[in-house]
Amino acid sequence: MSDNPLIMRKTSSCSRWIDQMHNEYFCAHMSEEEKIAAEESFKAYINPTELYMKLQDRAKKNPLFLQRSLSYKIEAKHQRRIQMTVSLSDTIETQKLFPLYVFLARLVSPEPTAEYSAVYKFSRTCSIPGGVDGKANFLLPEMDRLALKAGSVDLLFISFAGEQNFDSSKIRSGNIGGHCFLSKIPLETLYSSWKKYPNMGLGERATSVSLVEMQPYFLQLKCIMSEQCVEIQVPRNPLTSSSPQQVQVTISAQELLIFLYRKFVYYSCLKYILPDKW
């Protein structure tokens, strides 16, 4: 069919005239029952036809509607985050370690040995004060993005139990240090366990329980090139250091949708740990 508007208008006008002639002819030769049946059939037909015409008119005025709908879905996918909650068992042994600090940190130097120290870069710490309500919450990227960089991030558990004159308000100031108990769980291990939950993207909560061993270390918070870091060193004399302590840690994760106004929370918490394009 030609795209000429004049020809299209003439063709459309001719079609309407032929339809009108047919309708007049059939109406003149139809019985009353046939007219009633035709009217009912027309009523059943006209509603979806009107809906189709409205959709067609909307598509002409806004041809990018489907593309914009796809963009909304992509944007919603980018807003998905994993909320990770960390809690400890409330036992007599665990109470001795409170308050316990949880660091989401990335290793930037080799593992600590008797001669060398390890340095972790972090941007946020959460404190677990103890009790049944003591929890630490973190926001992580959605599963597909988390898989790319999970191997470089660790969850550090640090307790200054027994350290004299320790001021918890200075935990982020970079001028404190001393003996502590420390343990870690690689984020890659947690990611592997979360993959066993196929419905996590639908809101299913993944829960894992781990028994971590808190080892004695010497810790110093410092600032390196305007970035917050924690330096961890094995005690020089292990024989005089405190004995390790075991703690049961419960970690739950749930994928959820974070709205645009909460994006700054995610980036401010993780921009020093994870790449900007997560």
UniProtKB/TrEMBL annotation:
Residue span(s) of domain DUF7651: 71-256
Keywords, comma-separated and alphabetical: Transcription, Transcription regulation
Entries under Pfam families matching the protein: DUF7651 (PF24663)
Keyword Transcription: yes
Keyword Transcription regulation belongs to the record: yes
InterPro entries tied to this protein: EMF2-like_DUF7651
Superkingdom of the organism of origin: Eukaryota
Gene Ontology cellular-component annotations: nucleus
Protein name (database record): DUF7651 domain-containing protein
